[in-house]
Amino acid sequence: MLIAGPNLTTDRTLTIEELRPGEVLRFSTATITPGGKGVNVARVARALDFPATLVAVAPGRTGRAVVELLGDEGLDVVPVETGGQVRAASVILEESGRVTVLNEPGPALAERDWEAYERAVATNLSGNGFLVCIGSLPPGSPSDACARLVRVARARDVRALVDATGAQLAAALEARPDLATPNLAEAEGVLLGTESQPVDDGSLEVRPRALDAASELVARGAGTAVVTAGAAGVAVATASERRWVEAPKVEVRNPIGAGDSLVAGLVGTLERGGDLDRAVLIGVAAAAASVETGVAGVVDPERVRALAAELDS
Question: Does the pLDDT at position 273 exceed 70?
């Protein structure tokens, strides 16, 4: 798979007893890693032995450093160098289980920067079965950036998956991606024309809402829609059917990156020739395994296989 995840980060995963705004606080642990949704997909794909290449914007000296760190992990990265410096993201984990994420926007792109990025994606599509368009976009990116990438993939007979929000997702649906994988809040935000709102995944309404959202995404252009609903599970819809897949019960340490892990398992399995049912099962297992770890984009492949077997029983 080729992953279009332009907005790299330096992730700081921090643990603390309680986050109290307005006070001077000290974290008990800090883990600093390269991050971003595209990086999470690439890490999980590597762990599951699915070939993957990430095309990312590498702003300034810090961007080059992040690309080097990713190379040290064994990830295949195509950098597109720009001005500015790489953004940072802080993931704050409290003992209560509450998670707070502070995301910076990233440096602004000039028009020539996006054109260079799009060329890099097009140049590296050959030999890949899927283009995965995922994550936030740096300021200055075109409002239809994901749609443009979907069209680039279609022109080269490569299937495309889009995991985006807001106007980017709406525009991408018009380009008719093969797969769309938003969470329920993101899907309803686009379908209802509102801002994404948090969803209570313990509510009895989650399942029918997610199924309806998945069906509507297909009606608006997606070949297949997989709408995630946190610990509840995922809704899957095509033009001819729809179904619900329960998520396995696991202990959640860090929920960040679960959707990215699902995408890696889903796309990797499809590229290997698996059918949609098997691909969704592996994706859900990868998502569940990821939340058991402390750092986004990290899974134990043995745990993924065990959870997949549990789901398949």
Answer: yes
Could you give phi then psi for residue 91, rounded to 5 degrees? -110, 110
2-7 vs 130-134, strand pairing mode: parallel
User: What is the DSSP pairing of strand 9-16 with strand 159-163?
Assistant: unpaired
Residue 212 tokens read as 């309806």
| pLDDT of the residue at 188 | 94
Distance, C-alpha 98 to centroid of its chain: 21
Cα(274)–Cα(312) distance, integer angstroms: 14
CA distance 280 to 285: 9
Q: Are 109 and 139 in contact (CB under 8 A)?
A: yes
Distance CA 216, CA 191 (A): 8
The pair of structure tokens assigned to 15 is: 């643990």
Instruction: Single out the residue of 258, 192, 273 nearest to residue 226, CA to CA.
Output: 258
pTM tops 0.85, yes or no: yes
Letter string b/e over residues 269-282, b meaning 16 or more CB atoms within 10 A of that residue's CB: bbbeebebebbbbb
Q: Which of 28, 100, 104, 136 is nearest to 254 (CA)?
A: 100
Is 37:136 a contact under the CB 8 Å cutoff?
Answer: yes
Phi, psi of 10 (to 5 degrees): -105, 110
Say what angle helices 37-47 and 258-271 make with each other, to 10 degrees.
Answer: 50
Q: What pLDDT is stored for residue 193 in this prediction? A: 83
Spatial distance between the Cα atoms of 237 and 231, rounded to a whole number of angstroms? 19
